TrEMBL record:
Protein name: Alpha/beta fold hydrolase
Upper taxonomic lineage: Bacteria, Bacillati, Actinomycetota, Actinomycetes, Kitasatosporales
SUPFAM superfamilies (UniProt xref): alpha/beta-Hydrolases
Biased composition (Basic and acidic residues): 326-336
Taxonomic superkingdom: Bacteria
One Pfam family matching this protein: Abhydrolase_1
Segments of this protein annotated with the region Disordered: 312-336
GO molecular function: hydrolase activity
Domain AB hydrolase-1: 40-279
Length: 336
């Protein structure tokens, strides 16, 4: 597909007022989001337990050339936290509905971790509204996931999360994290930011929403949803994968597996970064997103092309042990 000419940047400064969370009521629930800038729409979807605040350092630069929309997913941040459906399919619907209320029809999606799974699900459910995919340390590739998340998916997780907020516990956890960092472990790389997510669960309602979201995608064996079975449908859709090579939550080998399953996908590895590469090197992250959106044409979706892809089905990825293991794992996990 031919590259599009470099887009001239607007270089419009973003005022502080644009970064303040706004709210829309959709289906009776208040949904928080941040919106800033002008130009083609760029949607930033955060991971589990996180919020749009995670993108705060990047939004001003991205908003110079894009209309940036960063929602707080239902159950997260300043959005409502009802006893509701927190599956990736429901989240994709929620993003679609919020964008519709904002009058935005087509977007480039940037999804981190769980948000990467939501972005993939959005592209599957609404391909006609998806221009590009940028998946950052995305879930939904392999079964493997950090053992801590598997533990929190078990019965009694409410007690565990509540205990982390007891007086004295934070000091003990901080000491353990310092030791992990001194030992130069992958978990030590990501643990401080993961602990920040626990701090964002101040009450039972927040913890309940977190656990319901987690259990929709993780159980004691690992990740329970997969996108491998439908990755072939991204043919013709510009896709970029961004990963830290020291990711302790979703291992970097998932990035290579995803690239093999997604026709034409581009992979960029952030050396020395963990599960949050956009925090580790925000300047490189912004530059990659801007370059990718400026030099690729939006996906040209058609019903006939989609029908042809579905009829042809998933291509044979080979018969080696790794390929067989991928297919076996995918068949054992849920295809939402």
């Amino acid at each position: 597909m031919p590259s599009r000419p470099q887009r001239t940047a607007h270089l419009r400064p973003v005022g502080d007022g644009e970064l303040v969370a706004r709210h829309r009521v959709v289906h009776g629930y208040r949904r928080a989001y941040r919106i800033a800038g002008d130009g083609p729409a760029l949607v930033l979807i955060h991971g589990i337990g996180d919020s749009s605040e995670t993108w705060a350092r990047l939004i001003p630069d991205l908003a110079r050339t894009h209309t940036v929309i960063a929602p707080d997913l239902l159950g997260h941040g300043e959005s409502d936290k009802p006893r509701a459906d927190y599956s990736v399919a429901a989240y994709a619907n929620g993003v679609r509905d919020l964008l519709t209320t904002l009058g935005i029809e087509s977007v480039t999606l940037v999804g981190h971790s769980l948000g990467g799974g939501v972005a993939m699900q959005f592209a599957y459910q609404f391909p006609e509204r998806t221009e590009r995919l940028i998946l950052v340390s995305a879930g939904g590739v392999g079964r493997e996931v950090n053992p801590v998340l598997r533990l929190v998916s078990l019965p009694g997780a409410h007690l565990l999360l509540s205990a982390l907020r007891l007086p004295g516990m934070r000091l003990q956890v901080d000491l353990a994290l310092r030791l992990l960092r001194l030992l130069d472990t992958g978990l030590g790389q990501d643990a401080p930011e993961l602990l920040t997510l626990v701090d964002a669960l101040p009450d039972e309602t927040s913890r309940n929403a977190f656990i319901r979201t987690l259990r929709a995608v993780v159980d004691w064996r690992g990740q329970v949803v997969t996108m491998l079975d439908r990755c072939y449908l991204t043919e013709g859709m510009p896709t970029m994968l961004l990963w830290g090579d020291r990711d302790s939550v979703v291992p970097v080998r998932h990035a290579h597996r995803a690239r093999e399953a997604m026709p034409g996908a581009r992979l960029e590895i952030f050396e020395g970064a963990g599960h949050f590469p956009f925090h580790a090197d925000p300047a490189r992250f912004v530059a990659l997103v801007q370059e990718f959106t400026a030099t690729t044409d939006p996906a040209d979706w058609s019903r006939e092309h989609w029908r042809t892809l579905l009829l042809d089905g998933r291509p044979d990825t080979g018969h080696g042990p790794a390929a067989q293991q991928d297919l076996r794992e995918a068949s054992e996990r849920s295809a939402t």
